[in-house]
Amino acid sequence: MPQPRSSRPTQRDIAELAGVSITTVSHVVNGTRAVAESTKAAVLRAIEATGYTGDAIARSLVTGGTRSIGMAISLVANPYFATLMQAIEREASEHGYTVLLADTHDAADTERETVRALRSRRVDGLLITPAPGDGPVIGELVSLDVPTVLIDRLSTRTDVDQVGSENIQATSALTAHLATLGHRRIGMISGVPGLSTSEERVLGYRLGLGRSGLTWSSELVACGNSSREGGALALSTLLALPEPPTALVVGNDSMMVGVLHEARRRGLRIGRDLPVVVYDDVEWADLVDPPLTTMAQPIEEIGRQAVRLLLARINDPARKAETVRLPPTLRHRESCGCPPVHSHQ
Amino acid sequence: MPQPRSSRPTQRDIAELAGVSITTVSHVVNGTRAVAESTKAAVLRAIEATGYTGDAIARSLVTGGTRSIGMAISLVANPYFATLMQAIEREASEHGYTVLLADTHDAADTERETVRALRSRRVDGLLITPAPGDGPVIGELVSLDVPTVLIDRLSTRTDVDQVGSENIQATSALTAHLATLGHRRIGMISGVPGLSTSEERVLGYRLGLGRSGLTWSSELVACGNSSREGGALALSTLLALPEPPTALVVGNDSMMVGVLHEARRRGLRIGRDLPVVVYDDVEWADLVDPPLTTMAQPIEEIGRQAVRLLLARINDPARKAETVRLPPTLRHRESCGCPPVHSHQ
DNA sequence: TCCTGACACGCAAGCGTTTGCGCAACGCTT
DNA sequence: AAGCGTTGCGCAAACGCTTGCGTGTCAGGA
């Protein structure tokens, strides 16, 4: 007689079937105490027969933990999001954790809600890319002792774990590269204001200028708002200058797409007419003409480290906060104006 | 005196603070029955004061539902994954659902585990991109009455909800387009065998050939395994033919990347020397030279529909299964060998 | 004055687990 | 024959919530 399969088997069902108490069932499932071989076998048989899976919800209620982590991330804003996510999921699941996904839309109030929702689901910890001007939310998380790690957009506080890539030195290197090529007027297209990444990259740009003996001029940095459209607009702005830049540092890949479009529309040849380097590598960087010189973030590593940090904190809440800065790597191709290098494929 | 904030406030805390029973707290939180204005106000004040969020876990235990759906998806295999995911998350959260993410790695046994894990977390429903040769898993889900919708890779069964894009007619159109350009030997690079999408696209290719009065020849389709490397290899295979194809249909975007690389390596000019069309559009399709003629899947719409179907089934398990096929749209650019069209930007 | 309905609320029984105690049975040692 | 450490297991109390019943109060109709 087929069970009224409408509802899943519970420990009690297994217990009855195996002729033991639910206590015993629990213990064989979790291996929490010695159980006679014969009994264990009977229980396992019953489990097999019914397809019993256990109930994570009920277990969580009593243990307190959920073995799940929440990802409050800005899906829109993160171009390399898929890769990041994949790395995070992999690392988490390898440690037996499930990932709850929620989009912050990069807005402070959605972020609030999102975090609330995740917390009410009792996630053991939170991974989050702080929205611009978020401040209070992460402050609250910290003071509530919610295990949290910030990704990508790092904050200046030192009481929270965070991992992101190094922006200043990297952008400086990008800028300096253009300078060594002889450029004196190097422009920059910067990202959404208020984001630490945007600001650090501008800082890096200025640093690179300084190191190359060039002076900074505010008119040479145009904000592209981290978007395609913004990038295109910013390029126009820069080009409209009485004395336009002769080379460009672009703050992220989305803006680069805009730059590429706008350049084509104007018949401007990247690399020849206008050397460009960009922070962020993309899959197609070497497929366009000319191939793009980029700064590639170690995305996978960022994801992995974020999860590691989070799990470490979950297991030891007293642990002191850590900030991890991973260095991106320069992918030297041709959009900077350098001649083709030999591809090592 | 600060609470021992170690553990979150519960309904009981609120009840005490507001001087009511937990029953009342529950009812004001859920709006499940009339509560005097003054009482309600007191409760709300207490909630505000403590930062009470409710406990989804405990609630789930009693209600049975979790207001969450599981996404068992192949992160690696889905190139447009980020977009899909975003659409799904948005639609789900708009309906008050949270998304649990799990990677199937596109392997049948990981898929099994993944689904088990998700189910033990009591997700209300499952979104899944079936791994090649999965069969049994979705069979089990169906017979267990677990609300499920298949995405992208559709099965032939009619007792399960599914949504994906139309492959046959679309690929046929792509192929026919090359034929109208005068090509008689049109090759195809196909995806991982055993995937419905791969097979349908090959079918569409043959259909397009037939409709154009061309006959099919097995040597003209090379399997590129849906990967970059595979695509490059497949191109080599095809080119090594005694009588190589004069134009190419590529089965997905990853393989196209491989094709582009391999073509460049050989100094082959896509479009001029070898016209190519590809199923799947990519962000950079119009940034390469020549811009790619592609078939763009309505990814957002797929995600939305998938969630809608799933929620519909959750709310009415007796509902009869539905299969949704969304038509992709041709993005006619230049890699097919056609002259530049005027961009409408 | 008594009855009735509407309104406001509380009691307590679960939901499916985990886990601290406790008890029985068994073999050994003295 | 009594005492004792082991081994193997069950009882029952949580965990934080929802919800079917009840109970008490108060206003209005008879």
Automatic annotation (TrEMBL), chains A, B:
Occurrences of domain HTH lacI-type (ranges): 9-63
PANTHER family referenced in this protein's UniProt entry, alphabetically = HTH-TYPE TRANSCRIPTIONAL REPRESSOR PURR-RELATED (PTHR30146:SF148), LACI-RELATED TRANSCRIPTIONAL REPRESSOR (PTHR30146)
Alphabetically ordered keywords of this record:
DNA-binding, Repressor, Transcription, Transcription regulation
Q: What is this protein called?
A: LacI family DNA-binding transcriptional regulator
Matching InterPro entries, A to Z?
HTH_LacI, LacI/GalR-like_sensor, Lambda_DNA-bd_dom_sf, Peripla_BP_I
Give one GO term, molecular function aspect: DNA binding
User: What organism does the UniProt record list as the source?
Assistant: Amycolatopsis melonis
Q: Which domain of life is it from?
A: Bacteria
Keyword Hydrolase belongs to the record = no
Matching CDD domains = HTH_LacI (cd01392), PBP1_LacI_sugar_binding-like (cd06267)
